[in-house]
C-alpha cells in the first residue's frame, strides 16, 4: 500500500509565538553562527500563564532539547492541559520554539514557549538558535537539479489530482504528480468522503428512483438559498447538468479502478433524495488511499514535499512544464500537459481579505487543508489565465472558540433544533438548513441560545462560562446583558419563538415543525460561534473540457484545471453537501482522459 502520513497535531494555527522576547540583541545577531553549546542538565522555570504561574521543567543535552514537562500550575485543566502538552511535545519533536500557540489557550501555551526559551538561556545557550521562524525560500538561490520529463504532469495530490493522474495513467500516459505537502490527500483526507451522484447502482439497489436530470434540477434549486450579492449568471446551468450527467460514471469508475465500495446513499440536503455516496467508514482518507494505490500500480510517480511555483510557457503561449523545488534543489519538469489540482485558497488570509473580505477574520476556523493557499491560481494567472469572477467561501459549519463546546452546540440533529440569534438578539436564519455559515458570516456575532432542559449540555457549558464566548443568566434579560445584546429585543424574540414552538409553525423562517424546541427552563445559556469554511468557490476560468482560458477567452494550450481550481460555475453562494468531491473526482477523471488522448494523439 502507498505509504501515507497524516499529521494529527492538536495545534491550531493562530499566533506565531513572540520568541524574540527571549533573544538578546547579540543572540539575534549571532543567529547565523553555530549554535552555542548548552550546559547539559535539568532546568525548572516558572513563568506567567493565563490564571497564574506555570512551572516547566526542561531537560537539555549539550545540543538539544531532550524533554519538556509541565509541573505545578493553576491553568484551567480542561481548556489548557492538552494544548500545553501538545506544544511541549512539538518543541521536542521539532527542536524549535517557533511553534504555533493554540487558539483559546494562547497565554497558557505561550508560557511553555517562554519557559523553554528561558531554560536555554540559563544553560548558557541562545534561544535564537532554537527559533527557526519560517523564511520563504527563493527557488532562484537553489541549485538546478535534473528532473524527469513526462507526458502528463499533475500539480496537487488531492482528490482532483489523484483522479486525473489515475485516469491519465490508465489511458496509457506517463504521469508525474507533485505535492508540496509531506503527505497526499489535501482537504479530501480530512472530509467524510461524500460523493453526490444520481442514477447509480447503489441507488437502484436501495430502490431510489433518481436520474441526472432530477439531480441537476435539485442542485440548481438549492442554489436559491444563496446569500444575496452573487453574480446572476452563477451557477451555470449547462455545467451543472453536465456534472450531474457524469456523476454516476464517476462513482462506478472509482469502484472499478480502486476497489472502493460505496454504501447505501443517504440524504444530506433538503431535496429529500439520497444521493450522497460514502464508504463504510465515511472517510475521505480511505478514498485517497485507494486512489493512491491505484496510481502506484499504474506507475504514477508521486513526489511529495515538492512545491511547484511557476509554469513554463513557450513563446506561443503553450504550457510546456513546471518549475518546482523541494527546499534543497529546484527542478524544471517538462511535460506535454499540465494539470492544476492545487485546490482553493481557504488558508490564504491575504487573498481572502482581497476577494472575500467579510470572511477574513474567520480563516482561523477553516476546515480546509493547510496547503490550500491558492498556489495554482497564482501560477495560472501569471501565465495569463482568466481568474474566476466573484470568488466565495464554501461555508460549512459553525464553530465555538473551545472545541469541547462543540458537544454543546451540536446535538443528534446537528443545529436543527437550536435557536440562533445575532448581536441584535434576532434570529437570522432557518436553523435546520444543511449549512448556516454563510448566513452567520453576514452577522457581527452569532449565538446559540438554549435552556436547562438538557443537563448534560449545561454541565459542559458550565465549565466554560466567560463574558465573551459562553454566558448564562437566571432569566433571558440577564442572559442578554451578558451576551451584550438588547434585552428587550432578545426577550421578545424568545417569546415569539416559544409561541411558534407551541403552535408547531415557524412563522419567521418556516423551519420543519419537528425541530421546533422551546427555550423555557431557567437558567438560560448562550454560546458564541463563528462560521467555518471548508474551501473556496473560485479558481480560474475553464471550458467544458477543463482547459484553462486566457483573459480573451482563448484556450491556454497544454493547461488544465479541476476541482476547486475550476469550481466557480457550479454554485451561486451556497454549497451543496457532497458536491465538492463530485466536482473533484469527475473533473479529475475527465481531465486525465482528455490529457492522455491529447498527449498520445489518440
Automatic annotation (TrEMBL):
Signal peptide: 1-28
Domain FMN-binding: 49-123
Family matches, as SMART domains: FMN_bind
UniProt key word Transmembrane helix: no
Keyword Flavoprotein on entry: yes
Pfam families attached to this UniProt entry: FAD_binding_2, FMN_bind
Keyword field: FAD, Flavoprotein, Oxidoreductase, Signal
InterPro entries xref list: FAD-dep_OxRdtase_2_FAD-bd, FAD-oxidoreductase_2, FAD/NAD-bd_sf, FMN-bd, Succ_DH/fumarate_Rdtase_cat_sf
Cofactor(s) the protein requires to work: FMN; FAD
Protein name in the entry: FAD-dependent oxidoreductase
Native species: Sutterella massiliensis
Amino acid at each position: 500500500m502507498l505509504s501515507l502520513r497524516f499529521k494529527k497535531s492538536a495545534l491550531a494555527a493562530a499566533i506565531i509565538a513572540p520568541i524574540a522576547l527571549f533573544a538578546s540583541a547579540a543572540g539575534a545577531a549571532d543567529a547565523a553562527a553555530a549554535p552555542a553549546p548548552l550546559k547539559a542538565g535539568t532546568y525548572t522555570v516558572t513563568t506567567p500563564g493565563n490564571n497564574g504561574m506555570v512551572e516547566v521543567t526542561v531537560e537539555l543535552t549539550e545540543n538539544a532539547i531532550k524533554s519538556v514537562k509541565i509541573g505545578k500550575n493553576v491553568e484551567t485543566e480542561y481548556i489548557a492541559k492538552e494544548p500545553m502538552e501538545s506544544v511541549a511535545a512539538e518543541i521536542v519533536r521539532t527542536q524549535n520554539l517557533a511553534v504555533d500557540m493554540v487558539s483559546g489557550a494562547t497565554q497558557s501555551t505561550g508560557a511553555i514557549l517562554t519557559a523553554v526559551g528561558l531554560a536555554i538561556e540559563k544553560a548558557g545557550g541562545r534561544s535564537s538558535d532554537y527559533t527557526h521562524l519560517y523564511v520563504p525560500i527563493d527557488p532562484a538561490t537553489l541549485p538546478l537539479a535534473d528532473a524527469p520529463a513526462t507526458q502528463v504532469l499533475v500539480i496537487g495530490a488531492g482528490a482532483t489530482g489523484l483522479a486525473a493522474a489515475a485516469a491519465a495513467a490508465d489511458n496509457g500516459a506517463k504521469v508525474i504528480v507533485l505535492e508540496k505537502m509531506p503527505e497526499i490527500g489535501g482537504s479530501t483526507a480530512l472530509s467524510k468522503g461524500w460523493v453526490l451522484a444520481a442514477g447509480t447502482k447503489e441507488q437502484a439497489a436501495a430502490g431510489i428512483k433518481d436520474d441526472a436530470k432530477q439531480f441537476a434540477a435539485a442542485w440548481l434549486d438549492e442554489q436559491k438559498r444563496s446569500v444575496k450579492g452573487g453574480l446572476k449568471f452563477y451557477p451555470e446551468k449547462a455545467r451543472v447538468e453536465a456534472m450531474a450527467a457524469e456523476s454516476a460514471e464517476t462513482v462506478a469508475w472509482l469502484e472499478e479502478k480502486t476497489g472502493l465500495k460505496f454504501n447505501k446513499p443517504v440524504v444530506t440536503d433538503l431535496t429529500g433524495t439520497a444521493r450522497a455516496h460514502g464508504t463504510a467508514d465515511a472517510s475521505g482518507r480511505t478514498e485517497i488511499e485507494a486512489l493512491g494505490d491505484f496510481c502506484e500500480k499504474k506507475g504514477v510517480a508521486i513526489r511529495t514535499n515538492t512545491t511547484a511555483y511557476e509554469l513554463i510557457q513557450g513563446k506561443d503561449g503553450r504550457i510546456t512544464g513546471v518549475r518546482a523545488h523541494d527546499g534543497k534543489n529546484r527542478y524544471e519538469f517538462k511535460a506535454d500537459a499540465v494539470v492544476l489540482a492545487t485546490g482553493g485558497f481557504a488558508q490564504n488570509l491575504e487573498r481572502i481579505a482581497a476577494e472575500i473580505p467579510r470572511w477574513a477574520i474567520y480563516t482561523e476556523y477553516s476546515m480546509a487543508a493547510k496547503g490550500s493557499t491558492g498556489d495554482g491560481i497564482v501560477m495560472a494567472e501569471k501565465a495569463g489565465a482568466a481568474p474566476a469572477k466573484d470568488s466565495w467561501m464554501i461555508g460549512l459549519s459553525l464553530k465555538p472558540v473551545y472545541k469541547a463546546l462543540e458537544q454543546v452546540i451540536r446535538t443528534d440533529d446537528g443545529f436543527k433544533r437550536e435557536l440562533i440569534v445575532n448581536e441584535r438578539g434576532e434570529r437570522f436564519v432557518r436553523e435546520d438548513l444543511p449549512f448556516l455559515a454563510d448566513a452567520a458570516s453576514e452577522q457581527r456575532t452569532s449565538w446559540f441560545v438554549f435552556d436547562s432542559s438538557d443537563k448534560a449540555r449545561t454541565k459542559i457549558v458550565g465549565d466554560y462560562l466567560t463574558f465573551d464566548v459562553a454566558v448564562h443568566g437566571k432569566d433571558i434579560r440577564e442572559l442578554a446583558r451578558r451576551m451584550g445584546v438588547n434585552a428587550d429585543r432578545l426577550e421578545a424574540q424568545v417569546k415569539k419563538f416559544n409561541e411558534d414552538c407551541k403552535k408547531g409553525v415557524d412563522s419567521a423562517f418556516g423551519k420543519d415543525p419537528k425541530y421546533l424546541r422551546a427555550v423555557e427552563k431557567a437558567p438560560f445559556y448562550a454560546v458564541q460561534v463563528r462560521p467555518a469554511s471548508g474551501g473556496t468557490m473560485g479558481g480560474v476560468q475553464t471550458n467544458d473540457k477543463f482547459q484553462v482560458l486566457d483573459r480573451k477567452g482563448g484556450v491556454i494550450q497544454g493547461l488544465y484545471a479541476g476541482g476547486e481550481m475550476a469550481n466557480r460555475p457550479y454554485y451561486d453562494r451556497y454549497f451543496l453537501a457532497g458536491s465538492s468531491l463530485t466536482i473533484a473526482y469527475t473533473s479529475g477523471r475527465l481531465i486525465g482522459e482528455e490529457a492522455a488522448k491529447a498527449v498520445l494523439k489518440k
